[in-house]
Amino acid sequence: MSKKMRGNLILLLTALIWGTAFVAQSAGMEHVQPFTYNGVRTLIGGLVLIPVIFLFDRLKPADQRPSPDEQKEIRRNSLIGGAACGVVLCVASSFQQFGISMTTAGKAGFITALYIVIVPLLGVFIKKKIPKITWLCVGIAVVGFYLLCVKEGFSVSAGDLLVLCCAFFFSIHIMVIDYFNGKQVDGVRMSCIQFLVAGLISLVLMLVFEQPSLENLWAAKGSILYAGVLSCGVAYTLQILGQRDTEPTTATLILSLESVFAALSGWALLHETLSFKELAGCALVFAAVILAQIPLSVKAKKD
């Protein structure tokens, strides 16, 4: 098996884990409230990455290890970047978790995927030139969102709007990561810190707004462990490994399949149904997600 094919398969597994995590999140909401769920699962994700950090450090060849001064700078930037990402991640995941409790896993997966379209739009505010085809993608996504979420009488459910807010903050999260990636950072360390920060904030909100119990946490243990260990910890590590052998645009396209896996897993495991109109909306949103990558890849090659 070639390195490219192996990388693609690893990223496909990553998308599968992230997509099926929507089902786990929906199931977990039957036992615990949103801040409780997010707090525990993100802390688990951060703890899972701690041994990964030490493993990566040990496996790194001696000639590729940074000098003491560089290491100090990397850890400082990783700490600041992780904290910033953690705050945004907490907001995004909170919107997502509240939204999932009021809509289906499949719809939540597709609406969340709009972040790939929203990201270039946010670039306008930092004076980035947006290709014309990107605006076409936005139009297609809006039509898809309408077919997917708008009911008779032009109503959109509260859950759909919350997940759309989640997609917006995940877009900000991507831009924050992009900013700190321009500095000297350790990606795994920064991710670990972001999970720990997001988890601690969520736990504070849990104590203020919710009434957690050990009994309910135990009842949701399978869902929380899946989302924490696999979705946060394992999938992030797989993403790093897969992207080593995969061209960036191809990697993004493969990872965007998480929305498809979310819909399919919701249908297979939760017996959720989508009407023809909603399926058409899913197809349009997914098409917009795919098309949104094409002008960016062309631009990157020209640069």
Draw up the topology in text.
Elements: H1 3-28, H2 34-59, H3 68-100, H4 105-112, H5 115-122, H6 132-149, E1 150-151, E2 155-156, H7 158-181, H8 187-209, H9 214-219, H10 221-243, H11 248-255, H12 258-269, H13 276-302
Helix pairs in contact: 1-4, 1-10, 1-11, 1-12, 2-3, 2-8, 2-10, 3-7, 3-8, 4-7, 4-12, 5-6, 5-7, 6-13, 8-10, 11-13
Unreliable runs: 295-303
Tell me the strand order in the biggest sheet. 1-2
What's the story with the biggest beta sheet?
Answer: 2 strands, antiparallel
What's the shape? globular
| Rg (C-alpha, Å) | 19 Å
Beta-strand residue fraction:
under 5%
Mean pLDDT: 81
H/I helix tally: 13
Number of strands: 2
Could you state the order of secondary-structure elements as H and E?
HHHHHHEEHHHHHHH
Instruction: Give the structural class.
Output: mainly alpha
Q: For the record, give the distance between the C-alpha atoms at the N and C termini, rounded to a whole number.
A: 32 Å
Percent of residues in helical segments? over 70%
Structural account:
With 303 residues, the protein is mainly α. It has helices at 3-28, 34-59, 68-100, 105-112, 115-122, 132-149, 158-181, 187-209, 214-219, 221-243, 248-255, 258-269, 276-302; strands at 150-151, 155-156. The protein has a two-stranded antiparallel sheet with strand order 1-2. α2 packs antiparallel against α3 and α3 crosses α8 (187-209). It is globular and about 65 Å long. The two termini are 32 Å apart.
Report a brief summary of the structure.
The chain has helices spanning 3-28, 34-59, 68-100, 105-112, 115-122, 132-149, 158-181, 187-209, 214-219, 221-243, 248-255, 258-269, 276-302, and strands at residues 150-151, 155-156. By secondary structure, the protein is mainly α. It has a two-stranded antiparallel ribbon.
